[in-house]
C-alpha cells in the first residue's frame, strides 16, 4: 500500500485533533498569537505537527534543553495549542508525557460574523477528506486483491514481492505500479469535488 495512503490511514485513525476557528479580534486569538511570538515556541509547535513527541524528543528535534521545552510547552498548553495525548515509559522506567497539537486545522478569520460559517464549512471539508481517505484505503485493498491473482497466474514461478501487473508503459502498469489505485481514486475524487464546488459558486 502506498506511503501516502498509509499516512492518510494513520492520520484518520489516530488523530483526536479538533477544528478550531478564531476571529482576529477575540481574546483567544491574542493568547494564541502571544504564545507563538517566540521562535523557539513556534519550533516546538511545528515539531508536534510533524508527529507527537515527548519533551525529550522535542528537545532533540529543535536542539534545546528539556527544561526549556517544558517552559514553552506549558505556554502553548495555556493557549490551547497543544495538549497531552498519551504517555510512555523511558528505558529507565520513568513515565513521560506525549504531546500533540490540540487543534488541526487552526484558522483565524478577520470577520467575526463569518466565524460560524467558516467553522461549518471547514468541518464539512475535514470530515469529507477523512471519509475519502478511508474509501481510498478500501479501493487500494480491493485493487491489490484483484491484481495479485493476475500476477500469480502470469508467472511460471511463484510471484515475487516486486512482481508487476502489465508491461511497463501500459495503463495497468501506471495505475498499479506507478500511481497506485488508492492514490488515484483519492485525487480523482478531490478533483471532482473541486469542479462541483466551483460550478455551484457560479
Throw out a few tags for this protein.
DNA binding, two-stranded parallel ribbon, Arc Repressor Mutant, subunit A, 5 strands, single chain, 202 residues, alpha+beta, HTH_MetalResp_TranReg, three-stranded antiparallel beta sheet
Describe the structure.
- The protein has 202 residues and is α+β, with helices and mostly antiparallel strands.
- It folds into two domains: 26-109, Arc Repressor Mutant, subunit A (Orthogonal Bundle); 112-201, no CATH class.
- Helix content is 61%, strand content 15%.
- It is built from eight helices and five strands.
- It has helices at residues 3-14, 27-35, 39-50, 55-62, 66-78, 115-154, 171-179, 181-201, and strands at 18-23, 53-54, 82-89, 95-101, 103-109.
- A hairpin with a 5-residue loop joins β3 (82-89) and β4 (95-101).
- The radius of gyration is 22 Å and the shape is flat.
Would you spell out the secondary-structure blueprint of this structure?
Elements: H1 3-14, E1 18-23, H2 27-35, H3 39-50, E2 53-54, H4 55-62, H5 66-78, E3 82-89, E4 95-101, E5 103-109, H6 115-154, H7 171-179, H8 181-201
Parallel strand pairs: 1-5
Antiparallel strand pairs: 2-4, 3-4
Helix pairs in contact: 1-6, 3-4, 3-5, 4-5, 6-8
Mean pLDDT: 73
Percentage of helical residues? 55-70%
Q: What oligomeric state do the depicted chains represent?
A: single chain
End-to-end span in angstroms? 38 Å
How many domains, as an integer?
Answer: 2
Order of helices and strands: HEHHEHHEEEHHH
Q: Would you tell me the structural class of the helices and strands?
A: alpha+beta
Number of helices: 8
Strand line-up in the sheet with most strands: 2-4-3
Amino acid at each position: 500500500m502506498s506511503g501516502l495512503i498509509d499516512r492518510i490511514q494513520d492520520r484518520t485513525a489516530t488523530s483526536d485533533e479538533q477544528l478550531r476557528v478564531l476571529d482576529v479580534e477575540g481574546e483567544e486569538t491574542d493568547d494564541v498569537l502571544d504564545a507563538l511570538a517566540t521562535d523557539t515556541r513556534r519550533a516546538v509547535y511545528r515539531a508536534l505537527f510533524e508527529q507527537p513527541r515527548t519533551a525529550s524528543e522535542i528537545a532533540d528535534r529543535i536542539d534545546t534543553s528539556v527544561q526549556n521545552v517544558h517552559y514553552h510547552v506549558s505556554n502553548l498548553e495555556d493557549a490551547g495549542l497543544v495538549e497531552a495525548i498519551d504517555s510512555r515509559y523511558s528505558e529507565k522506567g520513568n513515565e513521560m508525557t506525549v504531546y500533540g497539537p490540540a487543534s488541526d486545522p487552526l484558522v483565524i478569520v478577520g470577520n467575526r460574523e463569518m466565524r460560524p460559517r467558516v467553522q461549518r464549512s471547514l468541518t464539512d471539508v475535514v470530515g469529507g477528506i477523512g471519509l475519502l481517505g478511508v474509501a481510498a484505503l478500501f479501493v487500494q485493498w480491493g485493487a491489490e486483491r484483484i491484481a495479485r491473482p493476475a500476477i500469480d497466474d502470469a508467472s511460471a514461478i511463484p510471484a515475487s514481492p516486486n512482481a508487476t501487473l502489465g508491461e511497463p508503459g501500459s495503463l495497468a502498469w501506471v495505475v498499479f505500479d506507478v500511481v497506485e489505485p488508492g492514490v488515484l481514486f483519492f485525487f480523482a475524487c478531490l478533483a471532482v469535488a473541486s469542479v462541483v464546488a466551483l460550478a455551484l459558486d457560479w
